[in-house]
Every structure is written in C-alpha cells, then in structure tokens.
Amino acid sequence: MFQYLLSTEWDISTATYIEKSKYVGDEDTYPFGLSFKPDGSKMYIMGYLNKTIYQYSLPLLRKFLKAVLSIAENESILSIEE
Prior knowledge:
Elements: E1 4-6, E2 15-17, E3 22-23, E4 31-36, E5 42-47, E6 52-57, H1 59-64, E7 78-79
Antiparallel strand pairs: 1-2, 3-7, 4-5, 5-6
C-alpha cells in the first residue's frame, strides 16, 4: 500500500502521492485483509499463514491527513510508514 494525501476528503481524484510505503510481507507471506480503526489511528493487516492480525500505529494520519488511499501491489501488502 502507498500513502496519499487527499485535498478533498474521500475524493480520490484529489490524491497526491506522499511516497511512504513499507513492505510487510516478511511478517506474513500471505496477507489477505486490511482494516482501519474508525478514528484513523491504527491499521490492521490480517495474515493468513501465521493466522495473526498485525497492528500498525498511524498517529500522523489523524493529525496531518484528511484521508488515506491504500493500494495493494503485486499481491503483496505494503503498509503506511511514519
């Protein structure tokens, strides 16, 4: 996944790429799900192989970004990194 800044909340046509990403496939080679805490402070990735839910803190999202567009690429999950 990649991090974007949306100048208009939830309008992906206003997205600007921020160039922040992190590969998390080393934690679980078959990540299959993604969810965000409603307040935007946490991101969760579900791992099939390890049957684990990985939690990532996203304090900067809530403070500085209006919304985030996340994209999976090449069947590997990437995450937003501070």
